[in-house]
């Protein structure tokens, strides 16, 4: 009898330990060191596709954006973030720039500015309401703004489902359900994420819409190590409902590079001489 | 104490069986109807071959466009029928000097409204050109200086110009020219200093340009407003170096808001007409001058959630005020507005502007003390941001004139762009200036290729 109670207690306790472990894992994923600064030349390509004999083919010419992206951590404990993105291609959108300041403190709205070369001025743009779902996407791709935003640990409840033999390392499969507060502003009712055990990176994810149907699949590949930091150079986001796919490739990515703080100001958007000089300097940091 | 072990075991065993089933039921993945991404061979031609930084292609952008316009009140009348080619580029030389250029050549075909204006109606085609930017820029740690043809855009408002008085505008096609094309470049020396206390901008304009208006014979010339049937205007354009403009601006960007203060000494972009005489042939002779005016202005914005609040005000001393006759007055302009973003679904901008004449008589000869206008713009993107629809409305409160504009912009591919724009005018008051333009409704198509 006593042995039976101990067994029962151990089984119950293991369940509690597992729930904490899933949260601990995700905490490590979120807090993973991604460097204090970054420069990247990103290509974002999107197309509608068909599947033919297990092969995925575009049915239209992909829409391609080439952007240069500079980011650095700032603020208290380096938890705030400043970034600037300049569109280089397509030619019709060359020169359009975005400057964004994100803040870790709860309730502190992001600052965003956009430079439209057609207007010739910098304009502050609205960051949006954090209490409602954001419907916009990055350049019309399958990466929604929610997908590109930084995660907060307390936004989800985590459960470790199983362990899986991913390549090259084993991974945990974790289910993330948004908390009631986060669910109001999230486009997803559930996330299933495959977390690399060695690198603490999400290498695959399935996203479920508010009706509980699978909507998107994310796969991460071409993971390289730079300066002790793991960087994913290729991400595919497949919308299974609309059969559209976006590939985001980092043609050049440098981590922990010397970024002049003045580069992350409006001056980069409007001052061509300043911008090109600093971008050239960063591009040559290898 | 006696324990019912049979019931206890029944409860425990049931729990042990139910608990894992409950967990599996919550987390079992639904059957995939679509093959998983990692099971598919990605046979997609999405490799982007990036040209090298030294390639000349990276520095130049060509745009070729064709535009056709129709009069909506008489669909057989063509309003625009033209091709244009635009060349833009930029180049950083020796990490020191930055060059930028932006110019356009326009080929007008028979039927284009501007052909009448250039008195080339008897010719097959007419040529025109625009230089928007041609400058060299030198940048150091905390300052930048830009010399050459450039445009300057000030102010918070998108649809109305209060503090935005430096760049002249091309009104030769009334309101049918896009803001990007309508803003005229000028030869400027533009210096900016980025201090810890904000950004300072100081501009010297040694050769001020003025607004362009339709020439004689042009479809958009408001001959009716001139009264006499025979007139001659002696226009005295600003002289190089003798006439000049100065402008100073301070800007501060903070978390949640931006503010700017400006002070300028500029020439009026619109002419002030002074009747000199009527000659023996009965022709009225006018002098058109561009007198100087001073302005101090302030702008601010504040961001909160989905809303961006905007405010702008300017005091202008001795500025040209349009009425049935052009006059000089002291004016206080003020505007308030907001941008609202529905979290990416659509966005709307609303702006309210009032121009208050401080000095001199008002409400005389068509000159009102207050000139109030509100504008609204609603914009939505469709088809994964390849199609954009914009509805714009402008309403003048005193005259009750309205302008509606609807635009569709479709990116057929990354290089091909189609713009369709319809502009409609409404005027209900018999004495309103809008009566002159109420039949100018127009539909325009524009196809562009950029590489």
Describe the structure.
The complex is a heterodimer of chains A (286) and B (451). With 286 residues, chain A is an alpha+beta fold. Helices cover 19% and strands 44% of the residues of chain A. Chain A contains 5 helices and 14 strands. Chain A has helices at 2-30, 145-148, 180-183, 266-270, 272-283; strands spanning 37-52, 55-58, 63-74, 80-89, 97-102, 111-116, 121-125, 156-164, 171-178, 190-196, 202-208, 214-226, 229-239, 244-255. In chain A, strands 1, 2, 3, 4, 5, 6, 7, 8, 9, 10, 11, 12, 13 and 14 form a 14-stranded antiparallel sheet that branches. The longest helix of chain A is centred in the N-terminal third of the chain and has 29 residues, at 2-30. Residues 15-19 of chain A have low confidence and may be disordered. By secondary structure, chain B is mainly β. Chain B has one domain (6-39, 59-450): Porin, CATH 2.40.160.10. In chain B, 7% of the residues lie in helices and 52% in strands. Chain B contains 3 helices and 22 strands. Chain B has helices at residues 5-27, 113-117, 179-182; strands at 41-42, 60-71, 74-93, 97-108, 126-139, 143-150, 186-195, 198-205, 231-235, 245-254, 257-267, 272-278, 284-289, 292-304, 307-321, 327-341, 346-357, 370-382, 387-396, 401-411, 416-427, 442-450. In chain B, the strands form 2 sheets. Chain B has an 18-stranded antiparallel β-barrel. In chain B, a hairpin with a 4-residue loop joins β18 (370-382) and β19. The longest helix of chain B has 23 residues, at 5-27. Chain B starts with a helix and ends with a strand. Mean pLDDT of chain B is 82; it is low at 1-34 and 224-228. Chains A and B meet through α1, β1, β2, β3 and β7 of A and α1, β1, β4, β5 and β14 of B.
């Amino acid at each position: 009898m006593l042995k039976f109670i101990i067994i029962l207690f151990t089984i119950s306790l293991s369940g509690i330990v597992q729930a904490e472990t899933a949260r601990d894992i995700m905490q490590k994923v979120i807090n993973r060191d991604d460097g204090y600064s970054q420069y990247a030349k990103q290509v974002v390509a999107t197309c509608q596709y068909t599947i033919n004999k297990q092969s995925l083919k575009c049915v239209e010419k992909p829409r391609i954006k080439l952007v240069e992206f500079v980011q650095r951590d700032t603020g208290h404990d380096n938890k705030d973030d400043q970034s600037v993105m300049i569109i280089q291609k397509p030619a019709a959108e060359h020169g359009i720039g975005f400057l964004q300041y994100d803040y870790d403190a709860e309730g502190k709205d992001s600052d965003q500015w956009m430079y439209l070369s057609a207007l010739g001025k910098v304009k502050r743009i609205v960051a949006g309401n954090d209490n409602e779902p954001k419907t916009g996407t990055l350049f019309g791709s399958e990466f929604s703004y929610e997908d590109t935003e930084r995660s907060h640990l307390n936004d989800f409840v985590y459960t470790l489902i199983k362990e899986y033999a991913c390549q090259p390392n084993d991974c945990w499969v974790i289910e993330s359900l948004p908390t009631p507060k986060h669910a109001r502003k999230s486009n997803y009712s559930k996330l299933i994420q495959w977390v690399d055990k060695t690198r603490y990176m999400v290498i695959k994810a399935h996203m479920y819409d508010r009706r509980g149907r699978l909507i998107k699949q994310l796969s991460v590949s071409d993971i390289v190590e730079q300066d002790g930091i793991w960087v994913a150079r290729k991400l595919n986001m497949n919308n299974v409902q609309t059969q559209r796919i976006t590939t985001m490739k980092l043609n050049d990515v440098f981590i922990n590079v010397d970024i002049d703080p003045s580069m992350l100001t409006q001056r980069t958007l409007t001052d061509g001489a300043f911008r090109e000089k600093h971008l050239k300097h960063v591009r040559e940091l290898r | 104490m006696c324990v019912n072990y049979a019931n206890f075991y029944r409860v425990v065993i049931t729990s042990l069986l139910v608990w894992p089933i409950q967990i599996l039921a919550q987390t079992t993945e639904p059957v995939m109807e679509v093959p998983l991404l990692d099971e598919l061979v990605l046979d997609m031609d999405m490799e982007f071959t990036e040209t090298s930084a030294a390639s000349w292609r990276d520095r130049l952008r060509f745009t070729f466009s064709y535009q056709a316009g129709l009069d909506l009140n008489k669909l057989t009348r063509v309003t625009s029928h033209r091709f244009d080619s635009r060349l833009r580029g930029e180049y950083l030389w020796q990490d020191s000097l930055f060059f930028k250029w932006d110019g356009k050549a326009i080929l007008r075909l028979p039927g284009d409204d501007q052909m009448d204006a250039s008195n080339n109606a008897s010719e097959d085609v007419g040529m025109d050109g625009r230089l928007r930017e041609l400058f060299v820029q030198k940048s150091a740690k905390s300052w930048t200086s830009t010399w050459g043809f450039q445009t300057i855009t000030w102010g918070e408002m998108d649809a109305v110009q209060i503090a935005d008085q430096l760049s002249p505008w091309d009104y030769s096609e009334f309101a049918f020219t896009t803001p990007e094309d309508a803003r005229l470049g000028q030869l400027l020396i533009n210096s900016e200093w980025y201090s810890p206390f904000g950004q300072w901008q100081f501009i010297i304009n040694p050769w001020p340009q003025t607004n362009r208006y339709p020439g004689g014979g042009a479809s958009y010339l408001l001959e009716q407003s001139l009264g006499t049937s025979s007139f001659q205007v002696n226009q005295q354009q600003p002289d190089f170096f003798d006439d000049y403009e100065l402008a100073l601006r301070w800007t501060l960007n903070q978390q949640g808001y931006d503010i700017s203060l400006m002070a300028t000494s500029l020439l009026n972009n619109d002419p002030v007409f002074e009747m000199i005489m009527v000659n023996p042939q009965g022709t009225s002779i006018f002098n058109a001058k561009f007198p100087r005016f001073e302005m101090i202005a302030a702008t601010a914005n504040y961001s909160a959630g989905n809303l961006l609040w905007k405010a702008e005000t300017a005091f202008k001393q001795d500025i040209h005020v349009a009425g049935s006759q052009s006059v000089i007055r002291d004016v206080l302009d003020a505007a308030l507005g907001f941008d609202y973003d529905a979290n990416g679904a659509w966005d709307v901008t609303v702006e309210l502007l009032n121009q208050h004449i401080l000095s001199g008589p008002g409400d005389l000869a068509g000159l009102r003390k207050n000139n109030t206008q509100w504008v609204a713009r609603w914009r939505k993107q469709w088809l994964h941001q390849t199609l954009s629809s914009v509805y714009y409305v402008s309403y003048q409160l005193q005259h009750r004139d309205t302008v509606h504009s609807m635009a569709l912009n479709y990116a057929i591919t990354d290089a091909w762009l189609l713009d369709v724009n319809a502009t409609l005018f409404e005027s209900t008051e018999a004495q309103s200036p809008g009566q002159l333009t109420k039949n100018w409704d127009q539909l325009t198509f524009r196809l562009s290729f950029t590489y």
